[in-house]
């Protein structure tokens, strides 16, 4: 495979890996963003529906308030109050009680006593109001300030009302209040109704009470159905105690909302939660309806059981609850992921094509150089390269042409030829030396490439495998599996980065020229331990260090890397839990001091001890993790600093890894 194709393949593979990681990270970020957006969106939807229901009921209340001050109602109430006001309290109460008993035992709607209140001018006015807003109102009736009936659109259960909770709530000790009577299931209309009780005043005095039962389920159903376009699977109206007022296809107050969800909703300040019922996860949002909050000037409530209704409200407020399955969000994310993967593939292919084109263009002048070099090798010293460029290729061409000219000049005389022979002999000797060095480098490169290929293969394979799993089986995977796979991909990416960092460090050590300095060994060891703090805590390792250190001469960043490698190896292979001792020899030989790390691990055989510090060699790939660089880096650093490395170990009795450094003669 030529250079251009190799370049294209490398860029394509690198692009696939980088873009895959980018897509995975972007997917995760998108998941969080979309999830938070859906939580806010669902809350805004239920708030909107709550506001719509509240507004709808308040519009009906405004209509009733306007009707309540009609002259025909005011005059009728004043006339009734005057009739009853002539009586003493005892006689008035007796009369109202008598009429109430008579009212309850008469079942004939056409009885003159009944018609007196259901077919008078006021009742006709109320019936017209009822008919003009057909379906909006149930029964409407009017009482005087003593609770006695003045007019009604139909025969009610009772004639007297002053003893009833809703009448007292609206009368409010004479100060008056708008009262919403959450009656529950009303036998008189055979459906769920909400009573609106309005005190009628002249000045600051209450002269009577108007009550209308609203048929609210129709308008609530319409609000809920119109909101289906907002992508919520379910919308339910409930009382704060859990009874369901409205749910599509469910009889009012026949079912309770799950207590576990209700408790979480009440305890959540934002009124949006994520709930797992064992079958699927759901986003559940709620919004309290304004009329049920007992605002200033109004009251909301009722009693659980009454003579004419069942399951009334016992001081509970109303909530709209919206439910959306989390699986709906996953389907949106899946669509985004497919588009991202498609874009990534297209970009990778375009990068490969661009790399192939650039590679082919780049190799054209090199091919011509090869052709001309072959002609010169055959003795045609007049051969020249005609390419003109202002880059490195142009400089190479210029050098090549100069070389050809020099060949002509140097071959014009025997003296020059003899000189050339002598120079060639010297060059051959130098070349032989270089060949030996090159052979050593090639051996080192073979070991290097084997280590890199071996150690990068595993994390890259993991990343590729789990990325394939996510692509092929995404819809079948649980959320925990997806997060687990993404975590493994990220972990493998980090491991690959660690391998590359080690290789870069190894390369930088080979080329770097450093300034020898006096070391603060206590600070260096402390920083090394800090860098390994995570693995030390996870392995529960114990590390013992001396109270004082000699002053060695070296380069601080390199010695820190040596300590990190030695200590991390001791933690990995130093027993369970690891107990590690760090120290130095008291005596100094040839102005060199030995520093060491001792563990309580299984030890290293004498055969393997000789191979430990070989470049890029692992003595047991099945038993010992790592990437073959750690001890190679240690050996290279200490060699460049003029010291030595080694190990003292006996199977079953732990190991002592050491290195030597020149020390300050005064220490």
What do these coordinates show?
The longest helix is centred in the first third of the chain and has 66 residues, at 3-68. The protein is an alpha+beta fold. The two termini are 60 Å apart. The chain has helices spanning 3-68, 71-85, 89-105, 112-118, 121-132, 165-171, 216-226, 259-267, 326-377, 392-410, 414-473, 479-511, 521-531, 533-539, 556-573, 606-609, 630-640; strands at residues 137-144, 149-152, 178-186, 191-202, 205-214, 234-239, 244-246, 272-276, 281-288, 298-301, 309-310, 318-325, 517-518, 542-544, 553-554, 579-584, 592-598, 645-649, 655-662. It folds into 3 domains: 44-328, no CATH class; 413-508, Helix Hairpins (Orthogonal Bundle), CATH 1.10.287.130; 512-662, Histidine kinase-like ATPase, C-terminal domain (Heat Shock Protein 90, 2-Layer Sandwich), CATH 3.30.565.10. It is elongated. Strands 1, 2, 3, 4, 5, 10 and 11 form a 7-stranded mixed beta sheet that branches.
């Amino acid at each position: 495979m030529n250079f251009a194709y190799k370049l294209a393949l490398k860029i394509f593979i690198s692009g696939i890996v980088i873009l895959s990681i980018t897509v995975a990270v972007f997917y995760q970020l998108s998941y969080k963003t979309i999830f938070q957006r859906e939580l806010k969106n669902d809350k805004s939807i239920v708030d909107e529906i709550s506001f719509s229901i509240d507004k709808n009921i308040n519009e009906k209340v405004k209509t009733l308030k306007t009707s309540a001050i009609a002259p025909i109602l005011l005059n009728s109430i004043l006339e009734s109050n005057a009739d009853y006001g002539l009586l003493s309290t005892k006689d008035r109460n007796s009369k109202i009680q008598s009429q109430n008993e008579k009212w309850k035992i008469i079942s004939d709607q056409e009885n003159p006593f009944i018609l007196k209140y259901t077919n008078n001018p006021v009742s006709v006015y109320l019936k017209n109001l009822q008919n003009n807003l057909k379906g909006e109102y149930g029964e409407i009736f009017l009482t005087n300030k003593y609770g006695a009936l003045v007019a009604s659109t139909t025969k009610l259960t009772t004639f007297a009302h002053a003893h009833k909770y809703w009448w007292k709530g609206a009368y409010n000790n004479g100060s008056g209040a708008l009262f919403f009577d959450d009656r529950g299931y009303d036998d008189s209309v055979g459906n769920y109704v909400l009573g609106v009780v309005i005190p009628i005043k002249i000045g600051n005095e209450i002269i009577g009470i108007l009550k209308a039962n609203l048929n609210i389920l129709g308008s609530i159903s319409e609000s809920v159905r119109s909101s289906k376009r907002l992508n919520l699977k379910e919308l339910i109206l409930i009382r704060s105690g859990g009874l369901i007022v409205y749910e599509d296809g469910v009889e009012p107050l026949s079912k309770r909302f799950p207590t576990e969800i209700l408790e979480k909703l009440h305890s959540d300040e934002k009124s949006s939660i994520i709930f797992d019922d064992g079958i699927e996860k759901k986003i559940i949002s709620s919004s309290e309806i304004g009329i049920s909050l007992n605002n200033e000037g109004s009251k909301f409530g009722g009693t659980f059981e009454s003579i004419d209704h069942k399951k009334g409200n016992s001081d509970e407020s109303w909530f709209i609850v919206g439910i959306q399955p989390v699986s709906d969000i996953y389907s949106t994310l899946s669509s985004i992921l497919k588009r991202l993967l498609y874009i990534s593939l297209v970009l990778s292919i375009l990068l490969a094509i661009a790399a192939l084109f650039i590679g082919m263009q780049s190799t054209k002048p090199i091919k011509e150089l090869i052709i001309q070099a072959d002609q010169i090798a055959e003795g045609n010293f007049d051969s020249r390269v005609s390419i003109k460029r202002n880059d490195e290729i142009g400089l190479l061409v210029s050098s090549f042409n100069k070389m050809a000219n020099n060949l002509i000049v140097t071959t014009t005389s025997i003296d020059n030829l003899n000189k050339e022979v002598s120079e060639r002999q010297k060059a051959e000797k130098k070349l032989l030396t270089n060949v030996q060095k090159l052979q050593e480098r090639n051996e080192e490169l073979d070991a290097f490439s084997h280590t890199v290929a071996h150690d990068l293969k595993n994390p890259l394979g993991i990343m590729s495998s789990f990325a394939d799993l996510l692509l092929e089986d995404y819809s079948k995977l649980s959320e925990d599996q997806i997060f687990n796979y993404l975590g493994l991909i990220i972990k493998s990416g980090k491991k690959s980065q660690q391998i590359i960092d080690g290789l870069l460090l190894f390369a930088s050590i080979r080329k770097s020229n450093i300034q020898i300095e006096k070391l603060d060994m206590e600070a260096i060891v402390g920083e090394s331990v800090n860098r390994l703090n995570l693995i030390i805590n996870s392995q529960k390792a114990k590390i013992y260090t001396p109270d004082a250190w000699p002053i060695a001469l070296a380069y601080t960043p390199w010695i820190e890397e040596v300590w990190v490698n030695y200590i991390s190896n001791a933690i990995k292979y130093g027993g369970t839990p690891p107990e590690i001792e760090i120290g130095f020899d008291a005596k100094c030989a040839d102005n060199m001091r030995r520093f060491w790390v001792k563990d309580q691990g299984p030890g290293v055989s004498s055969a393997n001890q000789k191979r430990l510090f070989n470049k890029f060699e692992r003595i047991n790939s099945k038993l010992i993790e790592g990437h073959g660089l750690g001890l190679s880096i240690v050996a290279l650093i200490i060699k460049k600093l003029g010291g030595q490395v080694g190990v003292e170990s006996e199977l079953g009795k732990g190991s002592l890894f050491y290195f030597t450094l020149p020390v300050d003669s005064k220490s």
